[in-house]
Amino acid sequence: MAEIQSILVCGAGTMGAGIAQLSAVSGYRTLLFDLSSPVLIRAEQQIITQLNKLEEKGAISAEANKATYERIQFTSNLDLCKADLVIEAIIENVAVKKDLFNKLAALNGSKTIYASNTSSISINSLAEEFMYPHQFAGMHFFNPAPIMKLVEIIQGEHSDPTVITVLVEVAKQMKKTPVRCNDAPGFIVNRVARHYYLEAMYMVEKGYLAIEEADAILEAAGFKMGPFKLMDLIGLDVNYSVSNIVWEALQKPKRLMPSSLQKVKVEAGDLGKKTGKGFYNYL
Ligand SMILES: NC(=O)c1ccc[n+]([C@@H]2O[C@H](COP(=O)([O-])OP(=O)(O)OC[C@H]3O[C@@H](n4cnc5c(N)ncnc54)[C@H](O)[C@@H]3O)[C@@H](O)[C@H]2O)c1
What we know:
Layout: E1 6-10, H1 14-25, E2 29-33, H2 37-56, H3 62-70, E3 72-75, E4 85-88, H4 94-108, E5 113-116, H5 123-127, E6 136-141, E7 150-155, H6 161-173, E8 177-182, H7 189-205, H8 211-220, H9 227-234, H10 236-249, H11 260-268
Parallel strand pairs: 1-2, 1-4, 2-3, 4-5, 5-6, 7-8
Antiparallel strand pairs: 6-7
The structure holds nicotinamide-adenine-dinucleotide (NAD).
């Protein structure tokens, strides 16, 4: 079985920065790649802050903090992007992801394992025309990646079973709870959770209740975060794109129709916490 020593995380946004932190904390040599230098700088600052918080809480020693930080390399140079395992967390777009995987395959070859953190794009469709489909699978972390325990390991039609075993082991090394599933629209959690977001937006759109009320009621009912706060954390563009992909993949059932309330926000560039404004204002 392939031994993973180095992990390349592609995309240093909401998910990628957290996955890179987790990877380095778990002892892997980590490379964080993004096309955007400002995003990389922000990710580096975020990781430093989070590691310092862990040290202040006594969760890691000062030496471990330093060693963890030193295990991470930040780059916007694709030529440096070589590792035993690739975890791709770039924008939710099939063509862009495929293009990156093809470039990475040419650089890394047939031994590397290629995993996508996609929330909703079919793993089989991403593996189509990919040079090493047997080395390809889904590894779906939840937001915030360093905290959320669940990781869905998604087996594509051509994924080699040993690749799935390696991904399960890596997730365990990261102190996560891996759950295997087959490729299906929305996998498990995003399929089930669609109604949490869509029904809440539908009710607000119809004037039954306000955004703040919906969040307060569901939090009082035991959910950790109300749907609107959660969508702002996830990113409205990401959440809207997942809704569209799941809806289309299931032949557009009315009960899963994406919300125009969300569409308007996405088109206005109000994407949630990451842009300072979404359903709530963070500025
Ligand atoms: N946001 C969430 O809660 C969440 C949860 C689980 C999974 N995901 C999935 O993770 C992936 C990333 O989501 P996110 O919320 O972190 O997005 P994001 O918008 O915060 O970050 C995406 C990053 O990808 C970079 N990028 C775009 N094209 C690139 C390329 N060709 N090469 C390198 N970098 C590139 C962008 O510069 C950006 O920094 C998506 O597939 C999404 O579905 C998101």
